[in-house]
Amino acid sequence: MSELYCGDAAQVLQSIPRRSVQMCVTSPPYYGLRDYEKDGQIGRESSPEAYIANLVKVFDEVYRVLMDDGTLWLNIGDAYAHRPYANVKRKDLIGIPWMLAFALRERGWYLRSDVIWRKTNAMPEGAKDRPSRCYEHIFLFAKSPRYYFDYHALEQPVAAETKARYQRNRSERSKYFASSYGQGLEKHLGQVTEEGRQVCRGKDVWDISTNAYRMGEHFAMFPEKLVEPCILAGSKEGDTVLDPFFGSGTTGAVAKRLGRSYIGIDLNPCYLEKAEMRIALVKSKPSQENAAEKLQKPQENAAEESPKRPREVG
Ligand SMILES: C[S@@+](CC[C@H](N)C(=O)[O-])C[C@H]1O[C@@H](n2cnc3c(N)ncnc32)[C@H](O)[C@@H]1O
């Protein structure tokens, strides 16, 4: 069952039972970037420290509601200081993603990966005294050292040049003839799938283009292609996926398409209404269990599941 809540994420999360969601994938407001025009919004704090403290409050609650083997996939970008403060000078890159990552690690999260989302279609920035930014981070955090993670979901085809590189110039007399850095060559190059494709373990740089903004859309939507591998690796069909900064509902749309339930929270009721309309158009993958039930009781299961109306909390 999927649910949408309107309100402040840290507050709303307090009403959600402990250990009730499998994973969280989210993209909080960036520091000092946008004005979401709502009291209590995150991202407009007077200092990066205050911003980090507010995010920590939200992710403390996320930690509480996650299953013990659950994961958090957190998309975050950096910002430049527009004025000096503490030991940061005007023009300095602040280091927001790592400030947050270290703060969450101190709160008990296991920091497991720093995935780089390389924006393949990033527009050049105006600044002429530094390279243009074209990436953001997706941190993978786990609640426990052992957690649910389907690594097959992130498998990638082995590039022809990688294969050639490993097979090239290997003398039969070399102790590395059939191996690479102590690992079997085959293992290093990956498995052959049932369809005959050779795949290797997923890597931590993901090349994905950003969404083009269209009038009337949420202007900070993350791409479905970014959310999909996170949901596939972090949950099974029928599990619940949380996004406490739901915006246009990308997480809900992908979760529904992949046969997961979702819980979405946002401060802005207009975003939630639009998200609900967007998600209503998504065709849900019927789970194996539901499919079996449908065969037995066609009448009772005929209606499409729809999320609750957004309701005010707090
Ligand atoms: C970067 S956007 C999320 C976009 C979303 N990933 C998508 O694909 O559309 C951040 C969202 O956080 C919401 N927000 C800001 N402060 C909040 C708070 N304190 N509690 C809940 N939501 C908040 C904003 O309204 C905005 O929709």
Short description:
With 314 residues, the protein is an alpha/beta fold. It has helices spanning 9-13, 48-65, 96-106, 160-167, 185-189, 224-234, 250-257, 269-280, 288-296; strands at residues 3-6, 21-26, 66-76, 110-119, 135-142, 156-157, 179-180, 183-184, 191-192, 198-200, 205-208, 240-243, 261-266, 311-312. It has two domains: 3-152 and 202-312, Rossmann fold (3-Layer(aba) Sandwich); 156-200, no CATH class.
CATH class of the largest domain: Alpha Beta
Low-confidence segments, given as residue ranges, are 293-309
Q: What small-molecule ligands were found?
A: S-adenosylmethionine
**Mean of residue pLDDT values:** 85
Question: Any descriptors?
Answer:
single chain; three-stranded antiparallel β-sheet; nine-stranded mixed β-sheet; 14 strands; 2 domains; binds S-adenosylmethionine; globular; 9 helices; alpha/beta; Rossmann fold; 314 residues
Question: Which SSEs are present, and which pair or pack?
Answer:
Blueprint: E1 3-6, H1 9-13, E2 21-26, H2 48-65, E3 66-76, H3 96-106, E4 110-119, E5 135-142, E6 156-157, H4 160-167, E7 179-180, E8 183-184, H5 185-189, E9 191-192, E10 198-200, E11 205-208, H6 224-234, E12 240-243, H7 250-257, E13 261-266, H8 269-280, H9 288-296, E14 311-312
Parallel strand pairs: 1-13, 1-14, 2-3, 2-12, 4-11, 12-13
Antiparallel strand pairs: 3-5, 4-5, 6-10, 7-8, 9-10
Helix pairs in contact: 2-3, 6-7, 7-8
The structure holds S-adenosylmethionine (SAM).
